[in-house]
Amino acid sequence: MYNQTFLLSSVSVRTEIHLLIMLLISIISPLMVGCNNKLDHSKLVFEKQNILADSSMDNMEWNINVDNAWARPTKADMMSAAYFKLENYGSVPDSLIRVSSNSSKDVQIHLSYLNDGIMVMEEQPFVPIQPTEQIFFEPGGYHIMIIQPINDMNVGDSISFLLHFNSGKLIEKTIQVGNPDL
Amino acid sequence: MNTPIKTLKISSAILLFLVLSLVITQSTCVNDYKVIDNMNDTSFELVNQDSIRVQFPEDFHGQYVVLGFIYTNCPDICPLITQNLIKIQKELGYPANVQFLGVSFDPKRDTPDVLHRYKEVFKVNENINFLTGEPIIVQNFMDSVRVRTQVSMRTNTESGKEIYFLNHSDKIMVMNPKGEIIIEYGGSMPSIPSLIVQDLQSLIQ
Ligand SMILES: [Cu+2]
After folding, report:
1. What is the C-alpha to C-alpha distance for residues B173 and B185, in angstroms, rounded to an integer?
2. Looking at chain A from residue 37 to 66, which residues have their Cβ under 8 Å from any Cβ of chain B?
3. pLDDT digits (tens, 9 = 90+) for A96-153
C-alpha cells in the first residue's frame, strides 16, 4: 500500500487517471476469473507423426527393445489393454505396424487423447520410432487394445504378443497381467 | 510525456495490484464452491449393478457424492477414472458418509450384469456403485451433467461381431448433500484423486 501512495503522488495528473483505470482493470479481472476449480487438460494433446519410418539400410544396426510390459486384468469378452516402453537402441528408424497376440484375435494399436474436452480413442496404422527414441505405451496414450480376450485375464496370468515392424523384424514378448497403479 | 522511469513505476504498480487482488480473490475461494448444476430439477430412475433401483439425486440427499462417468468397453481411459474413484475412497479412509458412483453412458451394453462383472474385475469396495438405466433416461441424465459422448470407431471382430467405441467427456464431479454439483474435475488424470481428497476433506469438516 505504501508503494502505491508514493507512486500516485509522483506522477502527473494524466498518468494518474491512466493509472486509476489500469488499477480498476487489474482488480476486476481476477474477480472475473473467480474460483476456477475446473481443470483444463486440453493441453494434453499428442503430437502425431505421420511419417512411416523404415529401416532399409541393411548394414546398420537394428535394435528395438520392449520393456516394462503389463496388461490390464479383465474378463473374457470384455476389453483390455497392454502397455510397455518401446526403445530404439539401434541406428535405424522403424515403425510398429501391427501387433498380434494369443489372447485375442482382435488386437489393435490405439491412441487416446483429449480433444476439445472429449477423450478420443483412435486406431493407429503405425507408430514410428527413431534411433534413441523412447515411446511410452501407457494409460491415457498409446496402448495395445485387446478386444474381447479368449480367456479371463487374471493378475499373474501371462499372455504373449508379437510386434510386427515395417522392416519385417518381429519382437515376441510375454506380458504379465497385473496392475501397477493399484 | 511518459518517461521510461514513470512507465516502469506504473507497470510495477499494476503488477503489484494484479498479484494482490489475485491473492485476495483466491484466498476467499476456499470452501466457496459455486453450484455448477442443480440436480434436483429432475429425478432419474437408474439401476445399480445388483439391479437395485436408484432414484437420483433423492437417494443421495444428505451425503456427498463423487461421480465418475464410464463405459465398460473402454479399456484405457475409463479404468483410470474407475481407479481414481477407488483411490479417492481409499485415501479418505472409506468414509461411510461419502457415496461413490460410476455412471455408465453406454446403457445398451452396460446392463446391471455387465456392471457387476466390471466391479469384480476392479475389486471395487461395496461403497462404490455403478449405475445404468433405460437409454433415454441415461441420455437425459448425461445431458443434465453435460457429459458428452459420440460413437467413434466401429470394428468388426474376427468372429464377426461389431464392436464400437465411444469418445466421451473425461470427468469426475462432486455433488453436495443438497443435490448440487459443486466441483468438476478431469476424470482420468493421476493428479485428480489428491485434489478431490483435499476438497472433500475441507468440505466435510
Ligand atoms: Cu483402445
Report:
1. 6
2. 37-39, 41
3. 999 999 999 899 999 999 998 899 999 999 999 999 999 999 999 999 999 999 999 9
Chain A CB within 8 Å of residue B169 CB: yes
**B16 and A23 in contact by Cβ < 8 A?**
no
A122:B153 CB<8 A:
yes
Decide which of A41 and A88 is more confident.
Answer: A88
- Would you call A17 helix, strand, or coil by DSSP? helix
Q: ipTM of this model?
A: 0.76
Contact B69, B147 (CB under 8 A): yes
B residues 26-65 lying closer than 8 A (beta carbon) to A: 26, 29, 32-34
Fold assignment, A55-177: Immunoglobulin-like (2.60.40)
Summary count for chain B: helices (H), strands (E): 5, 10
Q: pLDDT-derived band of residue A43, with 50, 70 and 90 as boundaries?
A: very low
- State the burial class of residue B156 (Cβ atoms within 10 Å of its Cβ: 0-12, 13-18, 19+): exposed
Q: How far apart are CA B125 and CA A40, in angstroms?
A: 30
Domain definitions of chain A by residue range: 2-36, 55-177
pTM score, two decimals? 0.75
Nearest to A39 among B76, B121, B186 (CB): B186
Q: What is the pLDDT of residues A70-105, one digit of tens each?
A: 999 999 989 999 999 999 999 999 999 999 999 998
Give the A:B interface size as CB pairs under 8 Å.
Answer: 157
